[in-house]
Design goal:
- The protein is an alpha+beta fold.
- About 20% of the residues lie in helices and about 40% in strands.
- Strands 1, 2, 3, 4, 5, 6, 7, 8 and 9 form a 9-stranded antiparallel beta sheet that branches.
- A hairpin with a 6-residue loop joins strand 7 and strand 8.
């Protein structure tokens, strides 16, 4: 049986802005939320580089979204200096797409990074204990895994742990609906957020 179409989204820009950030905040804590995994893109040697990452923070007040990464990864090297970045999220059941652009910054020291590390699950911390950094050549597919004796050493791997924070400067919202697609562009400045409708 064919599933019914999603309900019409709100039509007021302010309501759409608030709803979008509520979805992002929910996605931080729920692995089942469609926005929990997003596509994050940087620029390397003039070409775009995309990868799927886990959304780890969303702060509407600061217009900031974050994820965790290995300091040895290519994307971390892309952000050795703050640089332009973009995000893409898609909620298939609701047929909503959100694209965001902004300035991304790498953080690997400080209280917030320490708190995030300590709050990470052991399975997540294990990802940072690998002897080989992401993208390193391997002789076999699992040669990056740490030795069994290193599995429960909670502090090991902290030196490789980092946060990537993106300060959002623009956000585009797109609703796909049989009654007519709707597309809204938000410009973000020092004096607030301005939403304007554009052709889908």
């Amino acid at each position: 049986m064919k599933s019914p179409p999603p309900p019409l989204p709100p039509l007021e820009p302010a309501a759409i802005w608030s709803d979008t950030w509520q979805r992002l905040e929910q996605a931080v804590v729920s692995a089942r939320h469609p926005f929990h995994l997003g596509v994050f893109a940087t620029v390397r040697n003039g070409a775009p580089e995309q990868r799927t990452v886990v959304l780890r923070g969303a702060e509407e007040a600061h217009r900031r979204v974050t994820f965790h990464t290995d300091l040895r990864s290519p994307k971390a090297r892309d952000l050795a200096q703050p640089g332009p970045a973009s995000w893409l999220f898609y909620d298939a059941p609701s047929r909503l797409q959100v694209r965001m652009t902004g300035l991304a910054t790498l953080h690997h020291e400080g209280d917030e990074v320490d708190r995030r590390w300590q709050g990470s699950r052991p399975q997540s911390q294990a990802c940072y204990r690998h002897a080989s950094g992401p993208g390193s050549p391997l002789d076999g597919p699992l040669d990056y895994l740490p030795a069994a004796s290193e599995t429960h050493q909670s502090d090991q791997g902290r030196a490789h742990f980092a946060i990537v924070a993106t300060e959002i400067t623009s956000l585009e919202w797109l609703s796909l609906h049989h009654a007519g697609h709707r597309r809204l562009q938000f410009a973000i400045g020092h004096h607030g957020v301005d939403g304007s409708w554009i052709a889908p």
